[in-house]
Automatic annotation (TrEMBL):
Keyword Ribonucleoprotein: no
Keywords from the named record: Disulfide bond, Hydrolase
Region Disordered, annotated ranges: 1-23
Protein name: GDSL-like Lipase/Acylhydrolase family protein
GO molecular function: triacylglycerol lipase activity
UniProt superkingdom: Bacteria
Lineage summary: Bacteria, Bacillati, Actinomycetota, Actinomycetes, Mycobacteriales
Amino acid sequence: MSDDEKPAGPARSGRPRSGPVKPGLSPALVACTVALALPWSHPAVADAAPDPAVRYVALGDSRATGSPQDLLSIRDGCFRTSDAYPQIVADTLSAESYVSRACAGAKTENITTTPQFTVTGPQPPQIGALRPDTTLVTVSIGGNDIAWSSLVEPCYTPAPGFDAKCRSDATTARRMTDALAALGPKVSATLAAIAAKSPAATVLLVGHGGIFGDRGCWPYVPTSDADAAFVVQFFVRMNAVLADAARANGARFVDVAAAAVGHDACAGPVRRWFEGLVPRSFTMPLHPTHEGHRAMASLVVAPLP
């Protein structure tokens, strides 16, 4: 075996021996070959700045459509108004683009697969508004899936001073438990579909609750104090279901109920974020007031970078 054919080994000087450069291979070509073997990245990719633009889509039910203070809100059958919390969020963030597909009466399937029929005609599934470059999605959903107002109806009394004792009624408890058990998979599937449609978006699931506090106030919240506290605990359980669905699908949960303590439908006009069964403003019964929408917008914006 000649010296040129022997494996490279340490030279006598102690330095590694380099293999011979074959005739005709110029130093410049050697340098190019070495450079190509090194890790490489495109300058445009390495130096790209994050996109600061907010492209926002709001999905959900009547909690995201606003308080109907003008007749124009019925023009699309969904009762969307300019004081809805998503509009306030879009204005606060100076969104590059904003579209709301929230519609009064919507259920989870109306977001994902099923057109919603309204007084002015059908609305297509809301998820169609999402794009791959959507950066922010808010979702207010779940209440109509379980018809929560019918679940708490046994707690209402016909006159002040009465106690319906729904908190001790086994049928009411069972209906609530069954409804919440069915809700989790529906919301989880909805959030998964949203993530698949807009994988880069921050998705915020806005929680329920806040209408009821620790006391009744007939006729606005026509329950005993003990039953009002029972209804509050129902929403604690509902929000736990929603928070679990959000966590399982990479979304964030916005806890409205915790922030709304003291702002329930029994509170005074300055502090009230929600109307009760009998509203004291243009707000729909059992929905956020104008002040409530402003508060919800602040809760949505707070965790964003």
